[in-house]
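re: ur question from the group chat, yeah i did fold both. here u go
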Amino acid sequence: MPEGSIAARLKRTIRVAVQAFAAFFLMIASPSAAQRPQRIIAVGDLHGDLQAWLTIAKASGVMTADGHWSGGKTTLVQLGDVADRGPDTLAIIRSLQLLQSEAPRTGGNVVVVLGNHEAMNLVGDDRYTTPGEYAAFADNRSPARRERVYLANRKQLEAAAHAAKPKALPSQVREQWLAQTPLGWVEHRLAWSPVGELGKWATRNPAIARIGTTLFVHGGISAEYAAQPLDAVNKRIATAMNAGDDSPTSVLSDPLGPLWYRGLVMADPEAQAARAARNQPAPALTQDQELDAVLAAYGAQRMVVGHTPNLKGIVITGNGRLARIDTGNSRYYNGVLSWLEIIGDRMIPHTVPRSP
């Protein structure tokens, strides 16, 4: 065999061996997508502040400058209480809905957890709704819609007015009602009703989301609720949302329920009062023990909650088992703008300066 032919074969053999070694090295040095830890971005209560939301979303890398999804395979979790206290609720919801539709195209996901203020809007509790939130729904037909609602309820309104002021004239009753019913109120109420677009959207959002080994919930999970399967809790709350249940015993307003419970982060007098009213003794557990029991019940390692603000920043307690991420993002509270990044078992708090 010619010497050149032998040399060529030897070179090919060496080249193939080097390529195989390189491929093997890359395989062990670069974990596959399935092996890479999942990245989660969690954002706390926003309460109607669009600028706060846009600043956080862009800084955390889940949104482009023009408002589209840029998070790739990231899972974004927003912990509820988008509504109330600020004027931009509708705009934030529209942004979240857009991201919910776009994220799956790149393998990402957007989960919005149900907050107590979304439930309040659904049942017509507008104590914290701002004029700007109503105005966002107003259009050139709003005056006519409002007038029709008044006419449909005129007899009841006049009867109620006469009970308090017998000499009230019909014109006075009408003027007072119009003054108390801003344009956009009718549309806002329709949209947030159980059969309205926003009511249905809120109802689809879980009260408790389990992603990997992390639980996400707006308020917290009491030991009483952890005795029920996670899916059963979510189904119970969705059923109450569908029914618009505003009864005194509704799960939507239960201080022990996941929309309201604060017992894992502080003393919770309302929860204790609820237990007493039901002749239900409080579990003989410390906060840490209750957290352990809840995590064990749902097979989780940690819990992330909103609802109870700490204006100085995210608080991680319980040796990394509990993260409180409501930092007062809305200008109503004027706290620190923040988000929590979870990569595998690491929880990394982030902050970003508030825009002027």
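okk and heres the other one u asked abt
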Amino acid sequence: MQPIGPLMIEHRLIERMITLMRCELERIKDNVAVDPEFAFVDAVFIDTAVDFIRTYADRCHHGKEEEILFAALGKKDLSLEHREAMEDLVRDHLWARKTTAALLQAKNDYLLGKSEALEEILKNLGEMVDFYPRHIEKEDKQFFIPCMAYFNEAEKAEMLQAMGDFDRQMIHEKYQGVVAGIENRKACHI
């Protein structure tokens, strides 16, 4: 398997979550159209979507891209086109992090009764569901495949192994963070 195989497989799961986020966005819009005074935002869904985007799409998927693939490409004599494309993808990742944080903040503001937060929720959800399909297509069709030509078979195998190692570490990072977060809130340390 090529090192881009796992990345492209991850894209398919991200696309499924984005479809669910699009459905939630439409549900909220429909709810607002019926009664703007009593719009209902499923805060649990937004928390789940934010966790998915932060953990799976960003830390796991973008983490492998940035820390493994892009780092390896950074050592290569890339064409100007590929170097600029890689830099553009990194900017995309930064934008996604910022927008995810804004969505979470808007959801928190909404729960505090700030009525303007609903507009921010709709804006951020809308931007994310529009962004990810374009971003994924750019990576799948315009970047990943052509960039594999910069690597020999041994380098590809090394990256694939590094991606597997990266995945194995992710569960530990996630739940170490969960426990540390609870400890910090409860001021109860072992």
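fwiw on the second one: The radius of gyration is 19 Å. The helical segments are 4-34, 43-74, 80-111, 117-147, 153-186. idk if thats what u expected
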